[in-house]
């Protein structure tokens, strides 16, 4: 018998799609049989409305799927087209070194990068502790007691501060004064955010004093974009005297040497933690920060980690003030931010722990000395240095020679900032060396003798009256881990206190927690991608720019749109950018009065918050009994607001996890009334390869690359939210015309784009389509197996769901007292992460298994839910009291089982639920704390690392 296989079938190895997609062929057969479908194609025909399907082959430039070795080789070739120089451009981005121990144990560790936002605190204590360490670092260095758990970048943090001061202050004026020495990109983002909110930006040289007239707040920079360090205290005091509040954009590393803004009277301090070990990445992702006084804590946007206690009275961490989350507050939300930059905040926090206060001070001193000695050498050669007091950036005047000198420096391997034809900026950093100083002196034609001699003769350039005298980073965590052994074990302890995708499926509806393959992740730490400055000459970024162009084109084709911008660095920013495009389009047609945004009641809360930020009025459309948009109510709302209708925002498939059959009819009705249709791409994992929003009626969509296209969630970020638009909206994308910047870097967060590029390239069109169909099959399989135990709330006309299903526990709760919280916490005892709780319907669980979970893991979750239903029955029968049963007391720690046991159920059952569920015993993960008291945490905010005694007292 001839057993030969053609070489063409062997040379690429196993197709990557076969490794990304979890169920094996035999598993697929069993799953299909369970839902009574003969094939994936039959499932597509019955579940996905024919009116939106791509029936004919769609022309595409997407290449077919390739093997990991081929794709990594292609990425290597793209990386080789980048030229990495010594970054001395500044503008808020600095060269830094990620300690190898942090790179290996955090940035490249799936225990950290595959985790989800810590909404389930009992199984998220490690991430929460790391974020609390981040908050403590920021609070200590800025001199303000409350810091958030990270924002998207410095520019958007400044925009958040601008709106926070408006909410927190008492002044009625809409004017916000910004120092002229602010980073240019920050100014651009402030203008974009201010205009739709009716905020009037006033840019003024605050070194010369405050402008005339009323204003509600000011933004100062410390140091300024020019590098100058000025005493901002008098300006802050003057602003306060005139009834305004003050925000300061500050360099955290400089604050190890300079008096913190909080001690100078600032009401808010903001900036970036990029130079704390986070690679440049051509602009991101980087963790922004914002700190405030205690009295403004409840005004903070985003997330805040605080100290609470568990049911045994032990200290436990949680996200505080969770009711501020956008899915609850909607159009009343203080911000539309949903994704933060948790993974990068963790890196920055670990950098502070790794170096400690003395190490950070030493890095700051070395950085400053490099700048001071550089300036002294230039002065000795007759070069005019514009500022006598600075931290790391030297600005020089070189009449008519700026371009030539910058080119010469670049030829020597150093990139400088070209301020104008006569001015250059030279920014020193952690990676600057004396060899770099010598190279620059040669470029400028300056002869300098021994560096050591010049160093000895050169005084510091920091203002004597602004030198820091207060301590910082005094908590033991910043002193205990000087050895790598100790730091490694600390990081392992934190990781062990979490439940991430490397241990179990995370079946979160609307969040798409799928595989983040190692081959996709590997390139992000390659120096050619990681060490590229966002404002490097375009020729230096040729490889990355080609990667960006590829990804924009591929995403446009997959969604049926004409153009894509990758600038939005979170889904919330993509929503905002899309709505700005719609508003600008209406203005271009003389219809600026169109300002009503229709949003279904079931929509993501960020939709409503984004609409308000874009200057629109939100009108809610009711949901029908099947979970679809109520067409009668929609028609009534369109008729009522016809002349003012700007847009409809709709999530497709719906937030209820259903393919709505009437979506084309809905889009047509909005278009007929002159409005635009925004199709939220949060559920795109149910569409790729099957249907395209831009082809069935959408004018604009954002996509969540951290959902459908495999950028990992990282415990709550990074995320990327590209915005895709039809041809008529393309001129209104960010930075392409009337609409300005929405993030701090021109291309948002390019440092993680190789992940999505690799995913699309590895899968190819057929692999992507197969992934979508498998995700839909997995959700329907879960629904079919659990329907007899928990009602499935919504389904399509054929009884199928899309890629997620909602389990309705409201009747169970009414009959037994067992709540959705009880079920979610009990899942932790099974070693499983809970689905999405009470969204979009209170008292329910929304389950999304994704395509990358194998059948054994899906069954483990299903069997656990069936086991929990049997436990609920024992509560219902009266065998266990409503207030004392394994569900109400979940989760159970190991310590609780060996303590005095006085419950009506055995300790073994508490810690090791029913043996019918495979993997509970051999894969047991012990929660580190019992159920956390959320109300206590909100009443008693502790937003920085508490003293060790606080933990000792709790135990």
TrEMBL record:
Domain Glycine cleavage system P-protein N-terminal, first and last residues per copy: 18-444, 454-736
Domain named Glycine dehydrogenase C-terminal: residues: 771-892
Cofactor(s) named in the record: pyridoxal 5'-phosphate
Purpose of the protein: The glycine cleavage system catalyzes the degradation of glycine. The P protein binds the alpha-amino group of glycine through its pyridoxal phosphate cofactor; CO(2) is released and the remaining methylamine moiety is then transferred to the lipoamide cofactor of the H protein.
Documented EC number(s): 1.4.4.2
Similarity comment: Belongs to the GcvP family.
Protein known as: Glycine dehydrogenase (decarboxylating)
Single GO MF descriptor: glycine dehydrogenase (decarboxylating) activity
HAMAP family, per the entry: GcvP
InterPro entries: GcvP (IPR003437), GDC-P_C (IPR049316), GDC-P_N (IPR049315), GDC_P (IPR020581), PyrdxlP-dep_Trfase (IPR015424), PyrdxlP-dep_Trfase_major (IPR015421), PyrdxlP-dep_Trfase_small (IPR015422)
Organism: Pseudonocardia humida
TM stretches of this protein: none
Enzyme class: oxidoreductase
Keyword vocabulary terms for this entry: Oxidoreductase, Pyridoxal phosphate
Residues with N6-(pyridoxal phosphate)lysine modification: 707
Quaternary organization: The glycine cleavage system is composed of four proteins: P, T, L and H.
UniProt catalytic activity: N(6)-[(R)-lipoyl]-L-lysyl-[glycine-cleavage complex H protein] + glycine + H(+) = N(6)-[(R)-S(8)-aminomethyldihydrolipoyl]-L-lysyl-[glycine-cleavage complex H protein] + CO2
Highest taxon in the source lineage: Bacteria
């Amino acid at each position: 018998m001839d057993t030969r296989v053609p070489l063409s079938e062997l040379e690429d190895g196993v197709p990557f799609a076969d490794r990304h997609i979890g169920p094996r062929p035999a598993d697929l057969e069993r799953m299909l049989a369970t839902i009574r479908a003969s094939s994936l194609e039959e499932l597509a025909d019955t579940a996905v409305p024919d009116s939106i399907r791509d029936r004919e082959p769609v022309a595409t430039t997407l290449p077919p799927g390739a093997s990991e070795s081929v794709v990594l080789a292609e990425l290597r070739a793209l990386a080789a087209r980048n030229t990495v120089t010594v970054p001395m451009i500044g503008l808020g981005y600095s060269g830094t070194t990620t300690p190898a121990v942090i790179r290996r144990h955090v940035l490249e560790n799936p225990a950290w990068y595959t985790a989800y936002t810590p909404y389930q605190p009992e199984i998220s204590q490690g991430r929460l502790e790391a974020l609390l360490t981040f908050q403590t670092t920021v609070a200590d260095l800025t001199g303000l007691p409350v810091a958030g758990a990270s924002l998207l970048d410095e520019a958007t943090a400044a925009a958040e501060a601008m709106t926070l001061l408006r909410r927190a202050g008492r002044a009625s004026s809409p004017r916000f004064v910004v120092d002229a020495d602010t980073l240019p990109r920050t100014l651009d983002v402030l203008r974009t955010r201010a205009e739709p909110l009716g905020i009037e930006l006033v840019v003024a040289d605050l070194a010369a004093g405050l402008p005339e007239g009323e204003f509600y707040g000011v933004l100062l920079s410390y140091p300024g974009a020019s590098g100058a360090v000025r005493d901002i205290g008098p300006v802050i005091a003057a602003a306060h005297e005139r009834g305004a509040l003050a925000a300061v954009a500050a360099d955290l590393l400089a604050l190890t040497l300079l008096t913190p803004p909080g001690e100078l009277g600032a009401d808010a301090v903001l900036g970036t933690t990029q130079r704390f070990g986070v690679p440049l990445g051509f602009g991101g992702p980087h963790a922004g920060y914002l700190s405030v006084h205690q009295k403004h804590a409840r005004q903070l946007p985003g997330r805040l980690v605080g100290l609470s206690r568990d049911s045994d009275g032990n200290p436990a961490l949680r996200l505080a003030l969770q009711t501020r989350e956008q899915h609850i507050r909607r159009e009343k939300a203080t911000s539309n931010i949903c994704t933060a930059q948790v993974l990068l905040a963790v890196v920055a926090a670990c950098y502070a722990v790794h170096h400690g206060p003395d190490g950070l001070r030493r890095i700051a001193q070395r950085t400053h000395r490099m700048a001071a000695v550089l300036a002294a050498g230039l002065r000795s050669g007759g070069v005019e240095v514009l500022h006598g007091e600075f931290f790391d950036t030297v600005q020089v005047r070189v009449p008519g020679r700026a371009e030539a000198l910058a080119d010469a420096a670049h030829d020597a391997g150093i990139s400088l900032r070209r301020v104008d034809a006569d001015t250059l900026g030279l920014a020193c950093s952690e990676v600057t060396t004396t060899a770099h100083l010598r190279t620059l002196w040669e470029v400028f034609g300056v002869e300098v003798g021994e560096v050591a001699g010049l160093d000895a003769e050169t005084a510091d350039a920091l203002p004597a009256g602004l030198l820091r005298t207060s301590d910082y980073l005094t908590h033991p965590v910043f002193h205990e881990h000087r050895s790598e052994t100790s730091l490694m074990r600390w990081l392992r302890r934190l990781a062990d206190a979490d439940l991430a995708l490397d241990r179990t499926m995370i079946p979160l509806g609307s969040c798409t927690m799928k595989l983040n393959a190692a081959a996709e992740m590997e390139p992000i730490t390659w120096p050619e991608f990681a060490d590229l400055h966002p404002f490097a000459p375009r020729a230096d970024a040729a490889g990355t720019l080609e990667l960006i162009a590829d990804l924009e084109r591929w995403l446009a084709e997959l969604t049926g749109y004409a153009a894509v911008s990758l600038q939005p660095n979170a889904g919330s920013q993509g929503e905002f950018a899309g709505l700005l495009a719609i508003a600008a389009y209406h203005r271009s047609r003389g219809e600026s009065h169109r300002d009503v945004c229709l949003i279904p009641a079931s929509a993501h809360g960020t939709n409503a918050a984004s609409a308000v930020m874009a200057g629109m009025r939100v009108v809610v459309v009711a949901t029908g009994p099947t979970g679809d948009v109520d067409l009668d109510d929609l028609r009534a709302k369109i008729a009522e607001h016809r002349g003012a209708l700007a847009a409809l925002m709709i999530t497709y498939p719906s937030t209820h996890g259903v393919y709505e059959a009437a979506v084309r009819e809905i889009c047509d009705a909005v278009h007929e009334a002159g409005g635009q249709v925004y199709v939220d791409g949060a559920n795109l994992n149910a569409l790729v390869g099957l249907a395209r929003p831009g082809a069935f009626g959408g004018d604009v969509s954002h996509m969540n690359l951290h959902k459908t296209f495999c950028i990992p969630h990282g415990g709550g970020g990074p995320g990327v939210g590209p915005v895709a638009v039809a041809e008529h909206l393309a001129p209104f994308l960010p930075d392409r015309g009337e609409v300005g910047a929405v993030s701090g870097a021109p291309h948002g967060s390019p440092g993680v784009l190789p992940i999505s590029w690799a995913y699309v390239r590895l899968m190819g069109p057929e692999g992507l389509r197969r992934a979508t169909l498998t995700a839909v099959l997995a959700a329907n399989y879960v629904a079919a197996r659990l329907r007899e135990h928990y009602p499935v709330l919504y389904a399509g006309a054929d009884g199928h769901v899309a890629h997620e299903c909602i389990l309705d526990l409201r009747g169970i709760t009414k009959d037994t007292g067992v709540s959705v919280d009880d079920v979610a916490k009990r899942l932790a005892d099974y070693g499983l992460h809970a689905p999405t709780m009470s969204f979009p319907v209170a008292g329910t669980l929304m389950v999304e298994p994704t395509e990358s979970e194998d059948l054994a893991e899906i069954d483990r979750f299903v069997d656990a839910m069936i086991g929990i239903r049997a436990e609920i029955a024992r509560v219902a029968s009266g065998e266990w009291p409503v207030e004392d049963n394994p569900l109400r007391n979940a989760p159970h720690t190991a310590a609780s089982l060996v303590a005095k046991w006085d419950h009506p159920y055995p300790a073994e059952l508490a810690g090791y639920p029913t043996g019918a569920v495979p993997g509970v015993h051999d894969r047991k993960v012990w929660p580190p704390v019992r159920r956390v008291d959320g109300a206590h945490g909100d009443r008693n905010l502790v937003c920085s690392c508490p003293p060790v005694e606080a933990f000792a007292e709790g135990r």
